[in-house]
Amino acid sequence: MVVEQAQEANEEQDKDSKTCGKILVVLSWIFVVMTMPFSLFICFKVVQEYERAVIFRLGRLLSGGAKGPGIFFILPCIDTYARVDLRTRTYDVPPQEVLTKDSVTVSVDAVVYYRVHNATISIANVENAHHSTRLLAQTTLRNTMGTRPLHEILSERMTISGNMQLSLDEATEAWGIKVERVEIKDVRLPVQLQRAMAAEAEAAREARAKVIAAEGEQKASRALREASEVIGDSPAALQLRYLQTLNTISAEKNSTIVFPLPIDILTYFMKAREERD
Q: Where are the domains of the chain?
């Protein structure tokens, strides 16, 4: 019973306000007509291509949505309007001290690109859409970094930026804001941690260098063994290798060249020794 009475009272109040509003609109039109052409300078407004005008008539949003770009008309004394810039804005998120999932304190800063995609909602649903978006960007950056270990923050910046962009865009949809892009600028580590990581990287490089050198020695040893087997199986190959060595020595500008005994003589003495044995 009480609820019904309250509803009836609200309906009567709405009717009275609508009637009063109509009367004020009529009086405003009379004022415009009586003061023409001077009233035209007050009634006609212009917004740029990148702007929209949200008009309120007696405190209520005017039907038809935001006006612009170009010329639009307002009634003096009863209409007010707010200009909304639709261009993309850039917000440089100040460095945030974040404790990562593996308990490392880092300083992270980012850049957020956003714009107003619904001028009416950005004025009617939130007091200051730009300020609210910037505060939300700071808290989202801290929350996102706090759920990830340090190695993911350093190696997966693109993935983290994409997740932040989706989270911000979903939260700011009710404010008429569209978050277009989020970029992580820099991740600053403590000095002690930088030194430790540098020492670890240096040790890893030295270890890789030693492994590569050992693999090279192993391959060289295998190649020498295969070469010795080929030379041992073919006396002609040994003779060719001997001649190649002499050619290499003669090509160098040496003052003294030592010629060893011919291979054939050595082979003769070796066979003679074997026969005696």
A: 17-84, 89-189, 195-276
| 88/193: higher pLDDT | 88
Phi (first) and psi of residue 38, to 5 degrees: -65, -30
Which residues are within 8 A (CB) of 174 and not within 5 positions of it... i.e. 6 or more apart?
A: 121, 125, 126
Taking the C-alpha atoms of residue 142 and residue 105, their distance in angstroms, rounded to an integer, is 11
Q: For 89-189, CATH number?
A: 3.30.479.30
CA distances from 147 to 24, 65, 137, 142, 242 (A): 57, 41, 16, 9, 70
**Partners of 181 in the beta sheet?**
113
User: Residue 68 to residues 10, 51, 76, 262: CA-CA distances in angstroms?
Assistant: 34, 7, 19, 103
pLDDT, one tens digit per residue, over 116-158 is 999 999 998 898 999 999 999 999 998 888 888 888 888 888 9
Residue type (1 letter), 88: T
54: exposed, middle or buried (Cβ count in 10 Å: 0-12, 13-18, 19+): buried
The answer to whether residues 111 and 89 touch, using CB atoms and an 8 Å cutoff, is: no
